[in-house]
Specification:
Length: 610
């Protein structure tokens, strides 16, 4: 990441910064001047302890904030940079991951961003207008808010340039552009301003996570939850750890307890999940979904104190759920579907209005095309008829009337044929014991291994029938070159991020669906930039002729090439401080959900009575 920043043309301005006195005089001189004159400030200014590069100036006081970068020479910071955090320790080659090569730098950048954020909130720039840095959640992400460059630290801030009416407020501008940055460096980042051991611990947490993910690969586990982990969250809309009331720390069942050695935490024990079909069973409110959600989240590292620091899953884990009403484009659903009404084919299946079951089947096949080999599924968010059909219902519906083969009959096929594991929250149907390799029971937030008992319960039931043809169907449907992606709307659509899971494309809402691995609005914002560039490059110009439709393989190749060139800065002109990387899988999930058409504006028409 760091070196990529170096090469961008925005660094030209750093060549000849204007002296500090220029900015000071300007603010005094233009106090009361017309707001658009702020444009004069674009470019680089030398301050005490750093350079200030004004990248974007808002056209008026009500527009989105202006953007500045602080370029801080390394000797002005107290960051513990020895051993590999500096350029050379390049970013992860796959976007959205924090691997061994990038972990130390991502951890230190994350530490810096949080420190800057806290200082600005508390000490630096109280009141409005403000200086701010992008908010950081519980996860450590590869963000554009703080970058490491060869010559120093780059901090990207948003500044609301102050005004009275439409006039420049000079003194306040001087405070925000001169005093706040200089105090920020001196009080927050300079050598001696903080304990470097804290920064180091933060980075080491990211490194331990990357090592834990490596251990998963080496030992062929799909997930690991360390003993002592605290998985419960404060609220459905608050990702911080639950602290009130009795919080039960995770404890692995002794028979499944495994040990790993992490570079900093040393020997750590916990529950290692073997590949296959794993059930999380138990009564309602006993912690099943909490455990599954912790696994969904554990594609990235978490900050010290989060409780999930030593939880990791395969980096290609994907949560899938029912998304009734989503659009589906050209997906081969034959592994799950046959005989649709009116002879509609199950291969090349498209709809603007999927049912719960077809949306969930599509999400699974799309995940496989993106390379996922671990599906995370919760009954709470699944279509019942996609998961299971009981024997009484089978007597009512002859096969022609029920096109769906439930996941129950496909879970083992996926595992044996394609090496795809699944972790399933199932509290409602013991039929799943017949498909399970491992049955875990959650009892008052404690995990027990009940595999033997579950096997015993289904001993007298016939084994689930094998369907060798399904394996071939899965292989064909999982091929990322086998289908066309939805082209999206024509022209150059405007893509915007609304929250971590929702974008809009030309004002048509785009729900990112099962992507529970998307944690943060900064990721959605980056996704919007990537998507917008993809649509521009691939799209059919209004009135132009269509070219060959791109496949998931084309999209993934394009993303990896563009990432290789410029990383987080490669998709929009001008450096942005409010982006965070997303995995190729999550980009594919977004593109898969594109709609060709918008919704009609207003539908007030009344049917005329005959
Ligand atoms: P289930 O999916 O089994 O119905 P949930 O995972 O939704 O249950 O958890 C139910 C409640 O218990 C939630 O409010 C959750 O935050 C809380 N909870 C989960 N795990 C723990 C734990 N280890 N300690 C304390 N509370 C927990
Ligand atoms: Mg639940």
């Amino acid at each position: 990441m760091s070196e990529r920043g170096e090469l961008s043309s925005h660094n030209q301005s750093a060549a000849s910064p204007r002296p500090r006195a220029f900015l000071e005089d300007w603010c005094a001189r233009l106090d009361g001047g017309p707001y658009p004159a702020y444009r004069d400030l674009r470019g680089c200014h030398r301050l005490r302890g750093c350079d200030l590069d004004v990248v974007r100036v808002q056209p008026d006081p009500f527009a989105g904030p202006s953007r500045v970068r602080l370029l801080v020479p390394w000797d002005q910071t107290g960051l513990p940079l020895e051993s590999g955090a500096l350029p050379g320790g390049r970013g992860a080659s796959v976007p959205g991951l924090v691997d061994r090569d990038s972990a130390r730098a991502v951890g230190l950048r994350d530490f810096t961003g949080r420190r800057v954020g806290r200082w600005l909130d508390e000490a630096g720039a109280q009141g409005r207008p403000t200086v701010s840095v992008e908010r950081h959640g519980q996860g450590m992400l590869d963000r554009s808010a703080v970058l490491f460059r060869r010559d120093g630290l780059e901090i990207r801030l948003a500044v609301e340039l102050p005004a009275r009416g439409r006039r420049i407020l000079g003194r306040e501008a001087a405070r925000l552009l001169l005093q706040v940055p200089e105090r920020l460096i001196a009080e927050c980042l300079a050598p001696g301003a903080f304990d470097p051991a804290t920064a180091l611990r933060h980075a080491q947490t990211a490194e331990d996570f990357a090592a834990l993910q490596d251990a998963l690969t080496q030992r062929a586990w799909i997930a690991f939850v360390a003993d002592g982990a605290r998985l419960a969250r404060r609220a459905g809309n608050d990702d911080r750890p639950l602290t009130e009331g009795p919080v039960v720390a995770f404890e692995s069942p002794p028979a499944l307890r495994r040990e790993v050695t992490l570079p900093h935490a040393g020997r750590v024990t916990g529950l290692a999940f073997d590949p296959g079909v794993v059930l999380l069973c138990g009564g309602g409110f006993h912690g099943k979904s909490t455990l599954l959600r912790a696994l969904c989240a554990a594609v990235i590292p978490h900050v010290p104190g989060d409780g999930r620091e030593r939880v990791a899953v395969r980096a290609d884990a994907m949560s899938v759920r029912a998304e009734e009403g989503r659009s589906v484009h050209d997906v081969d659903l034959r592994p799950f579907l046959h005989d649709l009404p009116f002879g509609r084919p199950a291969h090349g299946f498209s709809t603007e209005n999927a049912s719960g079951s077809t949306s969930q089947a599509s999400a699974i096949l799309e995940a496989l095309q993106g390379g996922s080999r671990l599906l995370l599924i919760d009954e709470d968010t699944s279509a019942t008829n996609f998961m299971i059909r009981d024997r009484l219902m089978e007597r009512l519906l002859v096969s022609r009337q029920e096109p769906i083969t439930p996941f129950l009959h496909r879970a083992q096929t996926l595992h044996r044929g394609l090496g795809v594991s699944s972790v399933l929250v199932i509290g409602g149907s013991g039929e799943y014991f017949r498909a399970a390799d491992r049955v875990l029971l959650l009892d008052t937030y404690c995990v027990e291994d009940r595999t033997a008992q579950a096997r015993d319960i289904v001993r007298d039931h016939p084994p689930l029938p094998e369907d060798p043809a399904a394996m071939d169907l899965f292989r064909a449907a999982a091929d990322p070159g086998s289908r066309a992606l939805p082209p999206g709307p024509p022209g150059e659509p405007r893509v915007r991020a609304h929250d971590a899971r929702r974008l809009s494309v030309d004002r048509v809402s785009l729900d990112l669906g099962g992507g529970e691995s998307l944690r943060d609005v900064s990721q959605a914002r980056f996704l919007a930039a990537v998507l917008s560039r993809w649509l521009r490059e691939q799209g059919v110009p209004r009135g132009g002729t269509a070219r060959r439709a791109a496949s998931p393989a084309d999209l993934l190749g394009w993303y990896s090439r563009a990432w290789e060139k410029a990383g987080l800065d490669g998709f929009e002109p001008g450096p942005r401080g409010d982006f965070a990387a997303v995995r190729p899988l999550d980009l594919l999930a977004a593109v898969n959900r594109l709609r060709a058409r918008g919704a009609p504006e207003g539908a007030w028409a009344l049917e005329e009575e005959e």
